[in-house]
Amino acid sequence: RMEGQGSYTLPTGTEYRGELKDGMFHGEGELLFPDGGTYRALWHRGVPTQGKYTFADGLKYEDKKWHYCDGYDRRFYTEICFGLKAAGISQLTNLDPPRKIPQGCYDCGDGFYNPETRVVVDHKLRFLRNADDDEHEWIIRTCRKAGYKTTEHKPKP
Questions:
Q1: Where in the chain does DSSP place strands (E)?
Q2: Which of 30, 32, 58, 77 could bridge 40 with an S-S bond, Cβ 3.0-4.6 Å?
Q3: CA 148 from centre of chain
Q4: Nearest C-alpha neighbor of 82 from the set 98, 53, 107, 58
Q5: Given 3-state DSSP classes, what are the helix, strand and coil percentages for the chain, each rounded to the nearest 5?
Q6: Closest by alpha carbon to 26, among 59, 60, 3, 54?
Q7: pLDDT tens-digit profile of 21-44?
Q8: What is the pLDDT of residues 58-80, one digit of tens each?
């Protein structure tokens, strides 16, 4: 079994780096997710006892007093860090400009969803999961779809 310092890559592409004991995450270690997020934690027999998640854009998750993108402040993290754009210029996602969505698909955050096949793929078009009925309905109802036209800001001559 794995012991000491090391790294282990899961089939999803997520990598663990840190201390191992008896084949399990044990001690200080971090998970590095393919999308760029990280979870640093203190592990005990494979279970995190305390930890902090940081999104790929540097936003740190807070489980208490979470104010990011709530009902009172709907700005994206990049808008919080770099300010709002001028009136009439909309930012549709935290990533600006937003990713190009494949035709007939939806952007569901961690990837793209094809409602015909009911498959979610990551942004590099690698399989993530099959959507169940609840996820399908949520994506169709709330997510941005390919072909959605936005008005470009054009400065006055």
A1: 4-9, 15-21, 24-32, 38-44, 47-54, 106-107, 112-114, 119-121, 127-130, 144-145
A2: 30
A3: 21
A4: 58
A5: 10, 35, 55
A6: 3
A7: 998 999 999 999 988 889 999 999
A8: 888 877 776 666 667 777 778 87
Is the preceding omega at residue 97 within 30 degrees of 0, hence cis?
yes
Tokens encoding 139? 């994506």
pTM over 0.70: no
* Cα-to-chain-centroid distance, residue 86: 27
Per-residue b or e along 135-145, where b marks 16 or more CB atoms closer than 10 Å to that residue's CB: ebeebeeeebe
- Written as six digits, the tokens of 137 are 């309905």
CA within 13 Å, CB half, 145: 10
Domain locations in the chain as residue ranges: 4-54, 92-145
CA atoms of 107 and 140, how far apart (whole Å):
10
